[in-house]
Amino acid sequence: MTQQPDTQVQAECLYELWDANWDDGPLGNYQVLCWEITKKTPKRIYFDRNGHPGFVDRQRIEADGEIRHGYTRRLLHLKPPEIPGRPKPPSLPELKQAMADAHPDRGGTDAAFIAARARYEQARAATPAP
Length: 130
Hints:
Number of helices: 3
Mean pLDDT: 84
Strand order of the largest sheet: 4-3-2-1-6-5
């Protein structure tokens, strides 16, 4: 009895960055979708999008790395695109410095100082004690 090596052939794809927020889900719920390339000619790259065939201009996508698919207006990529990161919240030291910079004695306004202090206090309350 001989065992065959477990080899999987990776399908060649065009990639799309898709945000699942279209249905009021969480913001930035990104996924990278893979549309399988079915055929390549000198002028076009044909792909299958869930049973819907499509094609893009091969020379343009190979030159730019991405292209808008004419019919669907989706941005397609040759390589998987990076998923955008959410901005990281400011740290407590950064918030404390912003509060100090907004102080009226340092040229800030009362309203700016009150807002900066509220942000600092809110972040401090949300941070677990060491």
